[in-house]
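pls design
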């Protein structure tokens, strides 16, 4: 069955699972995964508490389908279509108000590395490797890599990583902040799912505010950002999530986040 004929999106226990690559075409970026994932993200309602990004194959995502690029009648038009499809997906990942977890195994190269840099939590194994990959085929980045990477490692290091097409091993990925933490290679999928499920059943309104504040921090002065934090924490105090969190603390009981979400 080709990837266009299979569902690459699944919803289970509050987690929206999206396969960004399959074994087809050498675990390159999946157009079907992008289309189905974008549609699912746009349609996500309150039943979705977290997003889990996975690769179905030997790698998380080894980049774009270079053989497909080579075979296109009009390479420029073909790449523009692929980039626009990919970027629709990235925009929805950025806009979703719930935590995004990536289960990274094998290679996360090119588009795969770009996707990892958008995850709130990126778990990987000791054998995971990352690589910009674009210069190796004479391309510049897509998927937001030239936007996210400088914000993580600084402009100078970002230029070096992309231009030299450096292979970044798992330990270095964690040290640089590209990956959150490492787990055993055979536990990446199960641990990422556990984290996604835990987040999906947590204080989702709080997570949405955290994502928004962190995303907007780079465009504000400290003083303006302090004002934004004050407004956000004040607003949180009157939401069902904030009320339940404070009340459960005072009453010395576990918070019932599901009940809080139901009241939202």
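designed seq:
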């Amino acid at each position: 069955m080709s990837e266009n004929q299979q569902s690459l999106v699944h919803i289970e226990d509050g987690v929206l699972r999206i396969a960004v690559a399959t074994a087809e075409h050498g675990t390159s970026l999946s157009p079907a995964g992008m289309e189905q994932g974008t549609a699912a993200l746009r349609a996500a309602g309150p039943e979705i508490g977290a997003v889990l990004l996975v690769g179905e194959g030997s790698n998380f995502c080894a980049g774009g389908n270079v053989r497909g690029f080579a075979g296109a009648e009009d390479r420029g038009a073909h790449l523009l279509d692929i980039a626009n499809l990919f970027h629709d997906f990235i925009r929805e990942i950025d806009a979703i108000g719930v935590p995004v977890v990536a289960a990274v195994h094998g290679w996360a190269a090119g588009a795969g590395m770009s996707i990892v840099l958008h995850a709130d939590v990126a778990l990987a194994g000791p054998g995971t490797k990352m690589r910009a990959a674009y210069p190796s085929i004479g391309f510049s980045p897509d998927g937001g890599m030239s936007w996210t990477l400088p914000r993580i490692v600084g402009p100078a290091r970002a230029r070096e990583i992309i231009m030299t097409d450096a292979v970044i091993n798992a330990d270095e990925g964690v040290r640089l902040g590209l990956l959150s933490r490492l787990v055993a290679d055979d536990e990446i999928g199960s641990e990422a799912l556990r984290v996604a499920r835990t987040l999906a059943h947590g204080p989702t309104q709080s997570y949405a505010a955290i994502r928004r504040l962190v995303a907007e921090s780079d465009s504000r002065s400290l003083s303006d950002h302090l004002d934004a934090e004050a407004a956000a924490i004040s607003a949180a105090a009157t939401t069902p999530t904030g009320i339940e969190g404070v009340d459960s603390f005072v009453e010395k009981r576990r918070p019932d986040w599901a009940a809080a979400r139901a009241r939202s």
